[in-house]
Amino acid sequence: MSDNLSSSKELQNSIEKIMKKVQYENYDEWVTNFAINLSNIWNEKSAKSLQPLINENFQNEEESAIVIGRGPSIEKYEQLKILADSDYQGTIVCCDGKLSDALKAGVTPDKFHKFFVTTIDPYKDIKKHYDHEIINTYGSKIKGIFTVIANPNAVECARQSGIQIHWMHSLLDYNEGEKSLNYLSALMIRAKDNNHRLPAIQTGGNVGTSSWFIAWQILKCTTVALIGINHGWEESDSWEKIMSHGNMLETKNVDKNSPSFKKLFKTIHNPDFNCNCILDPLFQFYSEALKEFISRSPEWLNTINATEGGSIFGERIKSMKFRDFLNNFNY
Amino acid sequence: MKTNFKKNNSNSSESNEKTSDFVIQGHKVPEKKLTKEEFEEYIVSSGAKGSFMVYRSEKKDEELGLEEL
Known about the structure:
heterodimer; A: 331 residues; alpha/beta; 10-stranded parallel beta sheet; 3-stranded antiparallel beta sheet; 14 helices; 13 strands; 37% helix; 17% strand; disordered N terminus; B: 69 residues; alpha+beta; 9% strand
């Protein structure tokens, strides 16, 4: 590693190493979460049970899904309202942070029967995503997919609302073998029933990318559309918001023309939607990872970006307006 | 997402310095020659703490997930 971060690939590798290091600062919390969750994991379903039956030719039935994130385009283009007014027949995979907004907008399991919510982050703050009266109204008709290291209070809040809990692993350290948390937690989950096996997904660092993986890896949808997955900021967003990754915190003494600033906060042009967006270092990390995994995904999978903005474009990604997706992929 | 950001309401002389560096929670990000260490300091300060890493393996297919574990 050279002293200067001179290329985007080098930058990405550096970020991945940093994120790995940062991640392990929370290792104890994850192990604690898993230990508290374990008795429920034994008694509740594996997310594997959500997989559709594969036909005799081992080919997936044509099935589409919409992944709902909470990027700014979803409000800008009123995409929840568009979806609520549609007769879409496919699967909804909603990130936890957008669940209450989706329900309030009329995107409900009463209208869309194949309705899933996903939780990846293991932190106690996630509970707030499930602590809404409207989730109590619809919870029993929603299937939740949770990582085994999710915060137990967050899972319990979802459980109390009636959400049916389904468990999965998030891949952390399985490459490190039999002493890895992934391996040991799987062993403990199978302690009572060796058939109680859970799928393990790549998170890509965030719940949006995880939901894309869940849509095709677990739910086996052959077409996955993204809305609200900007992985970037709007040019109209304040620098205060951008520089603090959305936390609206004070920054100062910023020379936005400096080379290092431009390296950290890149403005890129999205040719598919003919718009610009700004990537902070975290969104650079998320965006590069998701684009990489889409490019490496199985040939039978179509990924459609209907976000109408943001940084996700390129190899194996078809971009279109959300209305066009609903008109052409209603299955 | 968790963050290490804290509001900096300080009116210290540092905040009044004319400089091209920017300051977040007391950390300066220099204008030139961004090093790995400086970048790491920035990432941790800017909200990366609490995020997940990307899972990497020598078995590249494994990076796309496992049917069951």
